[in-house]
Specification:
homodimer; 252 residues; alpha+beta; Arc Repressor Mutant, subunit A; Beta-Lactamase; 6-stranded antiparallel β-sheet; 9 helices; 8 strands; DNA-binding; DNA-binding (chains A, B); DNA binding (chains A, B); WH-like_DNA-bd_sf (chains A, B)
Amino acid sequence: MASEPKTIGAVERTLAIVQALERLGGAGASEVARELSLSKSTVYTHLNTLHANGYLVKSDGSYSLSCRFLRLGSTVQQSFDLYGRGKPVVDELATETGERTNLVVEEAGRGTCLHAADATGSTDIYMSPGERWPMHATATGKAILAHLPVERVDDIVDEHGLPSLTEHTITTREALDDELETIRQTGVSFDEQEAVEGLRCLSSPVLVDGNPLGSVSVSGPARQFTDSDRERELVDALREAVNVVQLKFVFS
Amino acid sequence: MASEPKTIGAVERTLAIVQALERLGGAGASEVARELSLSKSTVYTHLNTLHANGYLVKSDGSYSLSCRFLRLGSTVQQSFDLYGRGKPVVDELATETGERTNLVVEEAGRGTCLHAADATGSTDIYMSPGERWPMHATATGKAILAHLPVERVDDIVDEHGLPSLTEHTITTREALDDELETIRQTGVSFDEQEAVEGLRCLSSPVLVDGNPLGSVSVSGPARQFTDSDRERELVDALREAVNVVQLKFVFS
DNA sequence: CTCTCCGTTCACCAGGGTCGAAAGAGATAA
DNA sequence: TTATCTCTTTCGACCCTGGTGAACGGAGAG
């Protein structure tokens, strides 16, 4: 904190511009300059650099992120062993249960979506690939936290705190530890509208040699999940799915 | 060509480093420096900048691309109307035919994969999202080219030429034009090992108001496609799939 | 027509990016 | 244990280069 290591201003400007383009879904130099309070010509040079290297596409003087980013993202995704093994299972879990499912890993202390599936195969999903959520407020995050070494949990809580996202979010370390203990015993974690109002989610960690490589989840509108028979069904399906994924690691 | 517009060296260095990390699948500062013939300390500062902004994850002094890229890629993917409408159909086409399927768009004169599906839902795919191929050598590319204005085709051929990828690749403009005319008449394009030895592929363009928004393809080992009954089956399935996608654009 | 806003270009100057050397930090071997 | 190697990380200084504002040409709008 005291003295940040040296960084390159020009690069950070470019990154800010990329993020602005992501947010705006494509824009011209002037618009980005206004958005970021930078000079028009500066932004123009940056856009030009990105474009010349194939990272942007230009149409009618408006720039937007090119599929080069899709390529990079896809490479990152496929670099996870968990993705190759988990994706088919998570897809099938979605069709089997008729609910939305996710494959999540921990990155930099946050739960990051590796893959999302939907019963209809549609792309209208709650959490899309690369999206990040605080771990203490999601079923997927808690499932992973429950099997992480205590020091890691300490670090993560220290870094990100326990911010409240809804009135149901766990906000004290004691309550969190209790919950994690329960999760370790039952093998399943729940998110009772703790991250998003009206969204319920259940999850189970993918454990290989005791390490949580990630977690799988099933989620849907809170009211559809209240039936306890239905819940048992979902938990069973989830448990079996995770079991299948874990077996794929045993038979490397 | 004569005078390239101004670009920013520092940013291009960072982009080169990102590409190196993509290629190497993660590396330390020294390795990247060696790879790119840059000074260790320069690379270190760049890595540090990317890391401080969340674009890299560090483990054991080795840096690799973070899921931030997955997020960006996912955003790009979802920015295509064709993705939202085409993905479920392409997925179903894969399970229906038992073959691998792709959803492709044109970007910067190259065929770019927007989505890839596999009968087994596995991730072992010929062409993965963001991957780019010359248009003249692929069924998907030719399907799009056939419905692009002639000037666009001229531009693309001027820019990229007609490089030979296998001994079956079309390498003359005359042969290409003939092929495109045939495709316009039949509505289906074929790739007879023109891009990859041993790989056969058939494709059909997604036309909305006469514009080729992209194309859908079915592909597999050349020898499995030789049966003409099987081919007719695949062509029918492909045609129907494309038809479904196009209808989704009509009923916006 | 004028006015405005855009993308794009240019030349100047100072801030900053690059580089080499050297200091920590581990690992391995003797 | 010490020596040696390699890697990451730090530091200072030089010179380059990235930022800037003004200006040009064009496209729309009124």
